[in-house]
Structure formats: structure tokens, C-alpha cells
Amino acid sequence: MDHSNIHEPDREARSPWSRYNDSESVEISPPSLPMNADITVPGSKSMTNRALLMAALAKGTSRLAGILQSDDSHWCMSALRELGVAVELEGDTAVVHGAVGSWPNRSGSLYVGSAGTVARFLPAALMAAASGTWRLRGSSRMSERPLAPLLDALAGQGAEIAYDGTRGCLPFTLRSSGLSGGEAVLPGAVSSQFISGLLLAAPYARKPLTIRIDGPVVQRDYVEMTIDMMKSFGVEPIVADEGRTIVVEPGIYSGRSLALEPDVSTCSYFWALAALTNGRVRIHGIHSNTRQPDIEILNVLERMGCTVTKSGDAIEVIGTERLRGGCTISMKTWSDQTLTIAALAPFADGPVTLTDAAHIRHHECDRLAAICQELRKLGIRVEEHPDGLTVHPGVPQPALLDPHDDHRMAMALSLIGAKVAGVRIADPGCVSKTCPDYFDRLRELGVAVVFEERPDAISAHGTE
Ligand SMILES: O=C(O)C1=C[C@@H](OP(=O)(O)O)[C@@H](O)[C@H](O)C1
Ligand SMILES: C=C(OP(=O)(O)O)C(=O)O
Fold it and tell me: What does the entry list as the binding residues for phosphoenolpyruvate (predicted)?
């Protein structure tokens, strides 16, 4: 199998929780029996990294139960430890001893991996301290992803930022003299994370901080999640002007005990598996009234002919013989699932058009270009649009697929392998950004999963 055209992953961004890194590819084949499973899913990435950061800024000790253990949360914890915050793990509970907004280590080098939630949340949090100088770096892709609007707002708050290379990008050195407060303007069209990042640090400004949001916000629910979680840590942002203005008064987070929700973005792959294989998957511990926007997948699966049952704290999806297509779906508020729906779409009975997702070209890869490229390798007819794509019904042919070092590309493409034989996915280790044991979980559901080792991994093991 020729691997020469596969994107070379940035292995430095893989945490100690990453798996499958000795594997060059994984072959996925359909289950021999209909899927019939009750499962649980690890904690939300978005909630884990928000909670860790607020707990680190808080007064007192926090116990965060059900945290995600993946690359993105690893780099968050590792940066906090580098800042001198005590973060201990007791199983999947993180115990964080808050530093009350004054980082014990006033200088150092911080690595954010490929995590948008660390790259966009940490710079503002550093400025909670009245002084300090830190160098920040990230993976090669994170160093290309947009940060300028946030960093410009921080410069307006008093940060001195010296860029190693491109202005507005990692790596850079940030010198803090505290957040001045007053007004900051942030755009919402490229990433909601700029707004969440400044909000999380805002209580530590010297004066009230008013964030004015310029234009519509992509994935606005993540901003609402930030506000909800700030309230649960004892700070009450005031939202005005139909959501365009958010005011945060000076304050201090209070350490607390918190049980985090399962990651709904990860749940979506398992519900999608049930949908596609005409099986049944029930996920425990999740409510449909969550703030996590990817819960919208349930409405779309229902529209495509699946049966969704919400009972107590479990949500079950039962699939269908043939998914219904012939629809246009806006992905604006739940864009992380664009790839999942695109992977289901070839099996629908009519074309599926996904729109309003131009900003995902700035995610772990240019996701619109990447999914079109990989679906075409399978012989599927696809049209790429500036803000989305149209996928036509077809029968996927055997192919080696490139996940473009993107966890969601790998997880979404694996769904196709669970329906038709002959799908191989290169670099299976990339799933560790949010779900390090994803392929083991697939196997437990009856999907056939066979790894192919990397030639250099074999030589590293000698003749074993
Ligand atoms: O704040 C968050 O936790 C997230 C916000 C979204 O990013 P953008 O708003 O940058 O698209 C989402 O895609 C990401 O997975 C998590
Ligand atoms: C866009 C994503 O991540 P990040 O938090 O790095 O933006 C994602 O997980 O799909």
C-alpha cells in the first residue's frame, strides 16, 4: 500500500495518552452481527479544558470528575503545571489547587499541541497575572490556525507580544502586565474560541471588561457554554444587546466540585454507527438539554430515518435500512459534525448538501477540501462549495484514506469502513486529540479493526 501521499503527522502533538502510533494504517470492516450496544463515552473536551482553566484561576481546590484524557486535555494540564499549578489525577477526576489568578511561575515555555481550546484560552489566562513572560508554541497546524483577533485584543489590554515568525500566529512570547479592562472588540466569524478565551480571563481584569462582538458568531453555543461554566465557578457575565455585548465585572472564581458531561462530539460517531449499520447504540450519562451543540445530530439522524429515544440520562439511536437524503443542512452551529454527516451521505437515497461551514477550513485541516478529496478516493461524487459540500449517493470502493492528521477525519471516515469492506485509514493515532482509544471502542461494538504496523516501528522493536 502506497503511503507516500499521506500527510505527515506532527508527532510532537501526540500526548502520552495517544495510542496506535506504531500503526501505519487501520483497516475497518463491517460488523458480522447487527450492532446492539449500551456504552459510555469520556468527558467533553470543551468542558474539560474550560473547567481546568477556571479551576487553575480559582481560589480553593476543585475536583473535576469525568475529565477527558486525550491530547487536548493533556496539553492543557501540562501548561497549567508548567505555570506552577498543582493538577493531580485520581482516575478520571482532576484535583486542581487554584492559584487565584497569580501564576506561581512567572516565566517559562508552554506548548499547546494542536488544541484550539488551549491555544485560544491560555494567552488571555496568562494575563490574569500582573506580571510574567511566557513563550508559547504549538503543533505545525496550530501555528497556522488563526489567533490574531484574540492576540490583537490582548495587545489592546496591555500585552506585549513578540512573534517568532508570522504576526498573529504561534510561536510567540507574551509579556503580561495584567488585563486593563475596558472595551475589547472581537469578531465571531472565524472562531468562537477567541470570545471564550477572553471571557474566561475577564474576571481578573483591573476594571470591568466589556466584550463587543463584531458580526455573527460561528458555533455560538460554545460561548454560551463558557458563560454557563463561569457562572458555575461563581462569576456572572452580563449579556446585553442581543448577545453582542458581554460585560464581566472583576471577581475571582471559586474552586468547586463538578461532574463533567460526556463528549457529545464523540458520542456522535457511535450514534452515526447505529444509523449506518441499522443497529442500536444507547449512550448513558447524556441529556438532550446539554449546551454541547453537536447534540443537533439527533434531529438530523431522525430526519434521515433513524429512531431516537431520549430516556432519563441515556440517548439511544436505532438505525434504518436506508438513510434518507435529498436535504440541505446548515452546519453553522454544530460544524464539528460536518465530516460525520458527509461520511453518512454516500449511503443516503439522495444527495446531501452541507452549508454554512466555511470556518472549518481553519480547523485541524481544511476540512471541506480534505473530506471532498477522501470521498473522491472512494469513488464518491462530491462537489466542494466555499462554505460546504454536496455528497451524492454511491458505493464506496476500496481505498487507503488520509486523515490529514485530523482526529475527526479519521473517526468520520471509519464509519464508511463499518458499512463497506476495503476501507483503510492511515495514521490511526491521530484520533488521540479527543478519543485516544477510538478504534478499541469500535472493535468492542463488533466492527472489525486490523492495524498495519509502521515499517520503522518494526525496526524499533528489533526482530520481535
Ligand atoms: O470552544 C470550544 O470548546 C470549541 C469551539 C469550536 O471551535 P470554533 O468556534 O473555533 O469553530 C469547536 O469547533 C471546537 O471543537 C470546540
Ligand atoms: C475544531 C476542533 O478542535 P479545536 O478545539 O482544536 O478547535 C475539533 O475538535 O473538531
Answer: 45, 116, 145, 193, 367, 408, 433
